[in-house]
Amino acid sequence: MSHAIQDQRPVRADKSPAGGSLTRGGLPRWAPAAIGAAAIAVGCGLGAVFGLGSKVQWGLLAALAFVVITYVASAVVENRRQAKDRVATSAVWVSFLLAVIPLLSLIWTTVSRGIKALDGGFLSHSMNGVTSFEAGGGVYHALLGTIEQIALATLIAAPIGLLTAVYLVEYGKGKLAKAVTFFVDVMTGIPSIVAGLFILTTWNLMLGFGPSGFAGAMALSILMMPVVVRSTEEMLKLVPNELREAALALGVPKWRVILKVVLPTAIGGIATGMMLAVARIAGETAPIMLLVFGSQLINGNPFEGAQSSLPLYIWEQYKVGSDASYDRAWAAALVLIAFVMILNLVARGIARWKAPKTGR
Asked: Whole-model pTM above 0.70?
């Protein structure tokens, strides 16, 4: 009897499917830091030996060395399966750093060069009476034009895009829904200059209207609309059908379910999509050049007369080529980044305020 009981005891597997032991020791916690230092040394050494002048190339060699050394060390100390897992993790971290480093470099360059000319006078004055080669002047007229044009474009594109997404998710069936989806996909890849030419042909040439901020806003709304539709559509699809079914079971009309249940549940993602669309149009220059023309004066009426915008102002100042114009261009770029960031924070605050409460 005792021998039978002993024979029924589970046998402990000491080998992994790949042939490595599961009970062997693992790499210490300080191993990634040590491997990173060794990879940096290898990357710098190879870069110096092969005469590579770009530090970016040195960094890529160091990243490749980090992955290779991680795999070899883990395979020797641990097992092949753990080594593959560490390589996948290392590849994710390396990709993250390769994406973040250019972003941080861009932000650092913009801040360091834009802070020279950014002050209260720069934000409160226009370029009226200031030649492009001399110091002074400001960005107030361009900032005002950007705010008005983006606001008008959002007022045009946001309701149309939101209603289109609601139709596609909640009501869309058959050929019409497929056609709408197809044209939304096509509009996503439309170049900005094509949108500007379309408004120029219809609004300015055919109907006879002159340059204005509203014309530029209509072109920007064409670029903004597909982004709003796509982002809102995906957020509405994430709302559980159980919520819709529960509300419909209580006898609530479908339009009210959408208004009171579906949209509040997805409001956070919808607001984020709106900000992505705003960021998409905030840096466009080609439609503004065609339809708004640019101006050195302050024009607070977006429906009449030429206006300026921050992207157009940056291009104009950089084109001049003087030290003062370069400083103004970098300062305007910093203002544009801060403007988009503030809009993003405001949208997130509104989304959190309007989101349904999950606590008791």
From this structure: yes
